[in-house]
Amino acid sequence: MPDFVTLSCPSCGGKLNITNDIERFACGHCGREHIVKRAGGIVSLSPVVEALKKVEVGVDKTASELAINRLQREIDELRSYKRAFIASSPKPKVSFFFIWLIVFGLMAVVGSLATFDNNATYQVIGIGIIMVVIGVIPFFTHSSATHQWRETTGTQLSAIEKDIARRQEDLEYHRKVVARHA
What we know:
Elements: E1 4-8, E2 15-19, E3 24-26, E4 33-39, E5 42-47, H1 48-88, H2 96-114, H3 119-180
Antiparallel strand pairs: 1-2, 3-4, 4-5
Helix pairs in contact: 1-3, 2-3
């Protein structure tokens, strides 16, 4: 068996003498690095770039698998934090009692004005106006509390939801990387 094999450089075509002990070398003509592959008595050359691409694919897949686990854990933690945050700062709710008070008060005033005929009408109008005022004050107080809730808690919840959405986009990207290299 000869001490070397003569091959052509896959990059430039220059003649190369490959000895039995060489696994990796650079072409003396173009300087391109190659890996020597030996299988079944056949000797071939593979540019180092191809080998690096295979390593890169493996690294990308592994990094994405790790990222999937991390992102899923982070999403679960953010959702848990969001639930606890909502429980500690619930959105103000208006009592329907006050809405009905406003509605019935307005109905009393409008109905009395339509049948304006005696002294009792003034009393019904007065009661209707009082009902509306009693209903409006808590209603506007609620509106103010709701506005304040939106400005503070609502803004923070929106930021949490955006953070979850961003992580879910990243999660989908990494799932595609793993599927592409499966």
